[in-house]
Amino acid sequence: MKLVRFLISREGFISVFCYTITAVFSFLSFAPLNLPFFVWLAPFGLFLVEKRNRGEWKKLIYHGFGFSILFYFVSFHWIYHMTTVFGGFDWYLAVPIFIGSAILLNFKFPVYLLLFSFLAKRLGKFFPVIASVSILFAEFFTPQVFPWYFGNVVAENQILAQNAEYASSYGLSAFLFFVSYYLFSFRKPKTFFRLLTNFLSKHKTFQKQFLFGGLSLVLVLVLFFGNGYYLFQKWSKVKPIAERDVLIIQPNAPLEFRDGRNPAEEIRNLMTRIDSMAERELKGNPVDLVVLPESGVPFFTTHDTEVTRYSRIYWHQFESLMAILSLRHGTNVFYNELDADLSTEALPGRISRRDVRMYNSSVVMNPNGERRNSYQKVFLLIFGEYMPFEWMYALSGQTGQFAPGTNLNLIPYYEPRKTAPTQTKDLHFEDTMTMGPIAVREYYSKEKVEEKQIGSFLPLICYEVIISEFVRKFEGDPDFIVNVTNDKWYGNSVESYQHHTLGRLRAIEFRKWIVRSTNSGTSVFTDHLGRNIDNDFTPIETTAVIRKKVQVIPGEMTFYRLYGNLLSYLYMGIVGLVFFFYAKRNP
């Protein structure tokens, strides 16, 4: 009842209006709408709520939860779809999960309000700096499954986005709140004129403060826009050392068969579809690499081992088709699969189901149709690939029980065949019913070429691409980044565009191209400046192909790759010390 009375009161109306400003303006600024003007106004709701409730800690916590829920509802409404479709929860379980995750995974809002209010009461000035350091702290030290930072919205501006090479999205968040608070201070015209009148008076103390504040704003704007422009020009002039012709096949594979479809028939149709799409695009026009998405062929593996056969995930026709694609067109094929091994506690000489560990894995097959290096997903998706507690698996039959991978090596790829095939008749998926992988390789034995590595790429599965601190743990200098994902769980929503935009900054941090291959859209190529090539996105929930020449940018360890979030830590540390000594001198 208290909540209802609050919501129908004047205070409640103003508060909900503030929540809405921040949620809606952030959403409008972000993909796929990309209306960057609104980003500078989005923090106004937070500023106004904090100002009206300064020092009232309990109220600020509740208001933080209000921002969390409405922000989630507007920008992350697809989480509910994921919980019901991906997790398989009924609506009466999905709703509390949605609200609970909104509060827990957007805890940055109450933390931000509390920290801002505390510093504002203690210091009484430096509000733009307080705003920037508070959001930096809140985004750094609160849990987030989908790291959706305000800096990602700022990065929709192509020039400002280049600063991510040094400051990542965290630094852009701090920049946004610094500038936005100045705009918030001048939200009323009469406030601006009053300040201007006071400045023109003979109050020297006020004149110094006004000049200091104005110069600080100009300096920060010049720093970010100037550095962004310099980096944009610098990297625009870099000449690639090579180009790789890459084809993405978007097969629109089914997720599950609860609607009564025949699984065997659907999988056969899928395999035939992949085969024909590759044939149509590559016949007489080969590429260096073919990329299939996460769950492009679900439920199976090409890894023929005792454990995978015991687990019934090895399917010889899957391996045969991947071999046919690589041998028929003389190219590398990178595809997603299940994989399995035994836990270290397994007893020797016997296999028990409880000892089997399943992996979300991606693997490359060389131009000779031979399975080579694989990568097992390290960051697993909660409620989709694992449950936080064992008892929760009984609530959702759709949730997998995957183990995280441990290998952070790059994936090598090899020189493609440069000559046309000599076979008069090519193999297709229907041939895999009578020909196993060994027979396929034997059939194309005359097409075999010397295995010669020509490069390597950094593999990422699904939302790993949006976790910048994780991506920089990979060692070595990749030619480009490959992100395979399956956004079909989220339906025809904005999630796929948001997912890509959150990961797009990795291209700038690493100064490498990103090849994004999705099961059902949106697949796209992004260059080392964070630009989506030709703005060419594949449509959602359809089959599609997209092909581009990916530039290999000369290897260079960027500042972010070397030092990570050092600048953000330094900023928080230095500002914290200044605030501490100022507060001691002015009790």
Provide a descriptive summary of the structure in words.
Pathway: Protein modification; lipoprotein biosynthesis (N-acyl transfer). Keywords: Acyltransferase, Cell membrane, Membrane, Transferase, Transmembrane, Transmembrane helix. It comes from Leptospira mtsangambouensis. Catalyzes the phospholipid dependent N-acylation of the N-terminal cysteine of apolipoprotein, the last step in lipoprotein maturation. It is found in: Cell membrane. The chain has about 575 residues and is of the alpha/beta class. The protein contains 21 helices and eleven strands. The protein has helices spanning about 1-10, 10-30, 45-50, 55-75, 80-85, 90-105, 110-125, 125-140, 150-155, 160, 165-185, 190-200, 205-235, 265-280, 305-310, 315-330, 435-445, 470, 495-510, 560-565, 565-585; strands at about 240-250, 290, 330-340, 355-365, 370-375, 410-415, 455-460, 480-485, 515-520, 525, 545-550. The strands form two sheets. Strands 5-4-3-2-1-11 form a six-stranded mixed β-sheet, with helices on one face. Helix 4 (about 55-75) packs antiparallel against helix 7 and helix 14 (about 265-280) packs parallel to helix 16. It is globular, with a radius of gyration of 27 Å. The mean pLDDT is about 90.
